[in-house]
Model the fold of this input.
Amino acid sequence: MSQVDPRLAAPAVAPEPDRAQVPAGPVEGLRTQVFQPADRALEQLALKWFQSGPGREDVVLKPDRVWRHGPHAIKRFDRELLVQLGLRCSRASRSARLHVELAPIVTPRPQVLVEARSGASLLVSEFVEGRFLDLLWNAGGPAVEAFPHFMALMHRAPRLHGDFHLRNVLWDGSNWVLMDLDGLRGAQHRLRRRSLILRHWARVHFSLRGAQGLRQSFATYLNAAELDWEPASTWKKILGQSESMAKARGIDTGFVARDGMDPAPRDGA
Done:
């Protein structure tokens, strides 16, 4: 039988969870991990999703990879040779463990994972309801005020996101929630921390098309992250990357030229 592992419910670094073999039969060769007792009822559903994919009642978000079942989000991962050889844990397991390792950053709570000997895996997590930054920015308010502090918290984490964009963060009404944990990278990416941080902010600037208030938000970020970077020259580098993103997509770069209309950050912001 599979075992309930409550360790991912607490904000502390958890060792690799124990994996218990599912009884032999139609699911022979599959293993499940349930993270809290209340999630036990999802176990059989998770096995069915692993074998058959989404059902008619499920909402497909990415064909054959990501779908929603009521309050649950399901993500299926392809087989991995290193997992098959026993040299690393599955992508589903790595994503589940990051929920603990990234605390106090809010991430979707893992509920059940399924792993196969082939290295393929599936993770069931809580589905997060919320709104993206581009739908909230112009209105301002708590979400916009919290965003630079969230970015600072994210950039202090031991892992950085290698493919950060505005669809990877969601405002749930109280907190910014970091999604797509599979895109986080370890120490080898940490070595180019500054480069990734600038790229993250360039993507924010590009996605919001240089919306008013971004420079002030970045100034707030620098203070929250305790970075002694020179604001004006750093912002110019961000603008340059944002402009390159626009050119690569054939998008007019006028929004970069209009950046001067946004008041420069105030001292001590």
The chain has nine helices and eleven strands. The chain has two domains: 6-126, 133-261. The chain has a mean pLDDT of 85. The CA atoms of residues 10 and 34 lie 15 Å apart.
